[in-house]
C-alpha cells in the first residue's frame, strides 16, 4: 500500500477548499462538483485503506522524511480506515443535503471541506500534538458554520460553543504539554502503555478530560444540545456525524494505546458512560422541537460508545465501534428528516406540525425507519449494535450497565414516539371530525397555527432522498450485519492488542 | 520555578477574568489561559538549556529543545485566530452598535438577543 494514499484525505479537501474560495464565487456548479468529487475521492481512498488494513496490513506515511519522533506520522489501522469511510460518506451526503436545502451557497462547501480535513487528519494522525492541531482545523470552520445565516440566537449559540471549545482546547494543549514534560515525546507509538507511570497517567488524564468535553460526555455535555439546535439544518447534520465522533475516536485511541485499557479506572469510564446515556435521554423529554429532541439524544448515544470503551474487551470495543458507525448514519438520516420539515414548513416545533404521515410517505418512511434503528428494533442496525453491547456488558459482569442499556432504549422509544405522534400522525383535519378525539388533537388547540392542509407546501424529493438512502442503509446494516461486525471486531482487536499499531507508528 | 510561578499567576488571572460579567473580560481571560499553557509547553522542554538549537552547533546538553517551541508557535497562531474571531462574534452581537441584520428571519430571535444576560459568554440561553 502506497503511503502517498494516506496524504490524500488530508491534502485533497484542503487544496480543494482553497481553490473554491478563489474560484467558486462565480459558479455554484463548480463548487458542488469539486466538493462532492473530493469527498467521493476520500471515500474511495478510505475503502482501499480499509480493504488493506482488514487483512492486517497497516499503512504508515512519514511526511517530510524526518526520523520517527519528529516526522508528522499518518497511520491507518482498521479503526481509522473504517471511520474514514464513514465520515467521508457522511460529508458527501451532507453536501448533497446542503444543496437541497439551499445552504451551500457562499462559503459552506469550502468550510465543510476544511472541517472534513481536520476530521480525516485527526483519524489518521499518530501523534498527540498533531491530533490537537487537526482537532483545531476541524473546529475553526465549525465556529463559522454554526453562526452562518446570522440571527441573534445563532450568534449567542456560536459564542457559547466557541467559548467551551476554546477552554477545552486550552486544556487539551496543557495536557499535551504535561505529557511532553514527563515523557519527552508526544508520538502515540512511544507513549504506548506509558500511563502505567503515575505522572504520565495524570498528564494523560488531562488530555482525556479535554477530549471528553469534545465528545460531550456527561458531566461535560451541556454545551452540545443548545448550540447544535441553533445551527442550520445541513450544518447540524455535518456536525452530528463528525465533531463529537472525533472526540469519541480519540478517547478510544488514547485510552487503548497510552493507558493500555487500564483496568483500575474502568469503573470511572463506566459511570460516565451510564450517566451520559441516562441524562441525555431524560434531557430530551421536555424538548419541543424535532431538532432539539434529536440533539439531546446525541448525548445519550455517546454514552453507549463510552460504555463500550469502559468494557475494554474485544466484544465491548467492537460493539462500541459498530454502534458508532451505524449511529452516524442513522442520526444523520433523522436530522435530515427534521431539516426537511423545517425547510419546507418553516418550523420543526412539535406543537405546530401535524399529519405529515399521509402527505409525505417517503419522509415518514425515512424518519420511521431511522427512529426505529436508533431505538434498536430488529432487524435494523441499532438492534445489532445494542444486542452486541448488551452481550458484551453481560459477559463482563456489568449487570447494572446492561439494565441501563435496555431502559434507555425504551426511553428513546418513547421520545421517538412523541416526535412521531406530533409530526406524522393524522389528527382532526376539521374541527369536530371523527379524529378530533384524543389528547393530541393539535389544530383544534388554541394558539396553534397550522395552515389548512391544501395550502401547506410539500417536501421536495431532493430533501428526502438523502435521508431515505441512509435509512435504507440502516436496514441493510441490520440484515447484513456480518461484514461490518467482522470489521468492527478487527478494529477492536487492534485496540486491545496495540502491538501492530505501535510497530507501524514507531518503525522507520 | 519561575515558569511555575508565572503559569500560576496567569491561570489565576485567567480564571478570575473568565468568571467576570461581560464578554470582553472573558476573552482576555482566555488569552491569559492560552499564555499560561504556552509557558507550560515551553517549560515542558526544560528551561535550563538555552542554547540555540541549530544542527551541528553547540553541545546537545546545552541546546534548547526545539520541539516544544514549534508546538508553542503553532498554538499561538491557532489561539490568536480564534481570539480574533471570538472578538468579532462579541462585536456582532451588540444590537446597538452592529449593523442591523436584514437576514434575520425570526423576530423572536432578535428579542432574545436583547436580554440582559445575552452579552455574557457561556451565559444561559
UniProtKB/TrEMBL annotation, chain A:
Classify the protein's membrane topology as the record does.
Multi-pass membrane protein
Keywords (alphabetical) are: Cell membrane, Membrane, Transmembrane, Transmembrane helix
- Predominant location of this chain? membrane
Q: Where in the cell is it found?
A: Cell membrane; Membrane
Single GO MF annotation = NADH dehydrogenase (ubiquinone) activity
Name the GO terms of the biological process aspect. Answer: ATP synthesis coupled electron transport
Q: Which GO terms describe its cellular component?
A: plasma membrane
Q: Where does the NADH:quinone oxidoreductase/Mrp antiporter transmembrane domain lie?
A: 126-412
Q: Where are the transmembrane segments?
A: 33-54, 66-99, 119-149, 161-180, 230-252, 264-286, 362-380, 400-420, 462-481
Origin, by domain of life? Bacteria
Protein family membership: Belongs to the CPA3 antiporters (TC 2.A.63) subunit D family.
Q: What is this protein called?
A: Multicomponent Na+:H+ antiporter subunit D
From TrEMBL, chain B:
Enumerate composition-biased segments (Basic and acidic residues): 108-125
Source domain of life = Bacteria
InterPro entries tied to this protein: CPA3_antiporter_subunitC, NUOK/Mnh_C1-like
Which keywords does the record carry? Cell membrane, Membrane, Transmembrane, Transmembrane helix
Pfam families for this protein = Oxidored_q2
Please give, as recorded in its UniProt entry, the membrane topology of this protein.
Multi-pass membrane protein
- Transmembrane intervals: 27-46, 67-87
Residues covered by region (Disordered): 95-125
UniProt keyword Cell membrane present: yes
Primary location group = membrane
Where in or outside the cell it occurs: the entry states: Cell membrane
The record's GO CC annotations read: plasma membrane
Report the PANTHER family cross-referenced here. Answer: ANTIPORTER SUBUNIT MNHC2-RELATED
Family recorded in the similarity comment: Belongs to the CPA3 antiporters (TC 2.A.63) subunit C family.
Q: What is this protein called?
A: Cation:proton antiporter
Per the UniProt entry, what species is this protein from, by scientific name?
A: Modestobacter marinus
Amino acid at each position: 500500500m502506497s503511503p502517498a494514499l494516506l496524504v490524500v484525505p488530508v491534502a485533497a479537501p484542503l487544496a480543494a477548499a482553497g481553490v473554491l474560495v478563489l474560484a467558486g464565487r462565480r459558479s455554484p456548479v463548480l463548487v458542488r462538483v469539486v466538493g462532492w468529487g473530493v469527498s467521493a475521492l476520500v471515500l474511495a481512498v478510505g475503502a482501499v485503506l480499509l480493504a488493506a488494513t482488514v487483512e492486517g496490513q497497516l499503512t504508515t506515511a512519514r511526511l517530510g522524511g524526518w526520523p520517527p519522533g519528529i516526522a508528522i506520522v499518518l497511520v491507518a489501522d482498521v479503526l481509522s480506515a473504517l471511520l474514514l469511510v464513514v465520515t467521508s460518506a457522511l460529508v458527501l451526503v451532507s453536501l448533497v443535503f446542503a444543496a437541497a436545502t439551499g445552504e451551500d451557497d457562499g462559503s459552506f462547501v469550502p468550510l465543510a471541506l476544511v472541517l472534513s480535513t481536520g476530521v480525516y487528519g485527526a483519524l489518521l494522525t499518530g501523534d498527540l500534538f498533531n491530533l490537537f492541531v487537526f482537532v483545531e482545523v476541524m473546529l475553526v470552520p465549525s465556529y463559522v458554520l454554526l453562526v452562518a445565516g446570522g440571527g441573534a440566537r445563532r450568534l449567542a449559540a456560536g459564542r457559547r460553543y466557541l467559548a467551551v471549545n476554546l477552554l477545552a482546547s486550552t486544556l487539551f494543549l496543557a495536557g499535551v504539554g504535561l505529557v511532553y514534560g514527563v515523557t519527552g515525546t508526544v508520538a502515540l507509538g512511544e507513549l504506548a502503555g506509558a500511563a502505567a507511570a503515575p505522572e504520565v497517567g495524570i498528564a494523560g488524564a488531562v488530555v482525556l478530560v479535554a477530549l471528553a468535553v469534545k465528545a460531550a460526555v456527561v458531566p461535560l455535555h451541556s454545551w452540545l444540545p443548545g448550540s447544535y439546535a441553533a445551527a442550520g439544518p445541513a450544518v447540524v447534520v455535518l456536525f452530528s456525524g463528525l465533531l463529537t465522533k472525533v472526540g469519541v475516536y480519540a478517547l478510544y485511541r488514547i485510552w487503548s494505546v497510552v493507558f493500555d485499557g487500564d483496568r483500575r479506572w474502568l469503573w470511572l469510564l463506566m459511570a460516565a458512560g451510564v450517566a451520559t446515556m441516562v441524562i441525555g435521554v431524560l434531557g430530551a423529554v421536555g424538548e419541543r422541537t424535532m431538532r432539539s429532541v434529536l440533539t439531546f439524544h446525541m448525548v445519550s448515544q455517546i454514552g453507549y460508545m463510552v460504555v463500550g470503551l469502559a468494557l475494554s474487551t474485544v466484544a465491548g470495543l467492537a460493539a462500541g465501534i459498530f454502534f458508532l458507525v451505524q449511529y452516524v448514519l442513522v442520526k444523520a438520516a433523522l436530522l435530515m428528516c427534521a431539516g426537511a420539515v423545517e425547510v419546507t414548513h418553516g418550523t420543526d416545533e412539535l406543537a405546530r406540525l401535524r399529519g405529515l404521515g399521509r402527505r409525505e410517505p417517503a419522509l415518514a418512511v425515512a424518519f420511521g425507519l431511522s427512529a426505529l434503528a436508533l431505538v434498536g428494533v430488529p432487524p435494523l442496525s441499532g438492534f445489532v449494535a445494542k444486542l452486541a453491547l448488551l452481550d458484551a456488558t453481560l459477559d463482563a459482569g456489568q449487570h447494572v450497565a446492561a439494565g441501563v442499556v435496555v431502559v434507555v432504549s425504551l426511553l428513546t422509544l418513547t421520545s421517538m414516539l412523541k416526535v412521531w405522534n406530533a409530526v406524522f400522525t393524522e389528527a382532526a383535519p376539521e374541527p369536530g371530525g371523527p379524529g378530533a378525539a384524543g389528547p393530541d388533537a393539535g389544530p383544534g388547540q388554541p394558539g396553534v397555527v397550522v395552515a389548512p392542509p391544501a395550502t401547506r407546501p410539500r417536501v421536495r424529493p431532493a430533501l428526502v432522498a438523502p435521508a431515505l438512502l441512509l435509512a435504507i442503509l440502516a436496514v441493510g446494516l441490520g440484515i447484513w450485519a456480518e461484514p461490518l461486525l467482522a470489521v468492527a471486531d478487527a478494529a477492536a482487536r487492534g485496540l486491545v492488542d496495540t502491538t501492530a499499531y505501535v510497530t507501524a507508528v514507531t518503525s522507520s | 520555578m519561575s515558569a511555575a510561578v508565572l503559569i500560576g499567576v496567569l491561570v489565576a488571572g485567567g480564571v478570575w477574568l473568565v468568571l467576570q460579567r461581560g464578554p470582553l473580560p472573558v476573552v482576555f481571560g482566555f488569552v491569559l489561559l492560552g499564555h499560561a499553557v504556552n509557558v507550560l509547553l515551553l517549560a515542558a522542554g526544560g528551561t535550563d538549556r538555552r542554547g540555540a538549537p541549530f544542527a551541528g552547533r553547540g553541545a546537545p546538553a546545552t541546546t534548547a529543545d526545539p520541539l516544544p517551541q514549534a508546538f508553542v508557535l503553532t498554538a499561538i497562531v491557532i489561539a490568536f485566530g480564534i481570539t480574533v474571531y471570538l472578538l468579532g462574534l462579541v462585536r456582532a452581537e451588540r444590537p446597538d452598535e452592529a449593523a442591523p441584520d436584514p437576514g434575520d428571519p425570526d423576530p423572536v430571535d432578535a428579542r432574545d438577543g436583547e436580554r440582559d444576560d445575552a452579552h455574557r459568554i457561556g451565559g444561559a440561553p
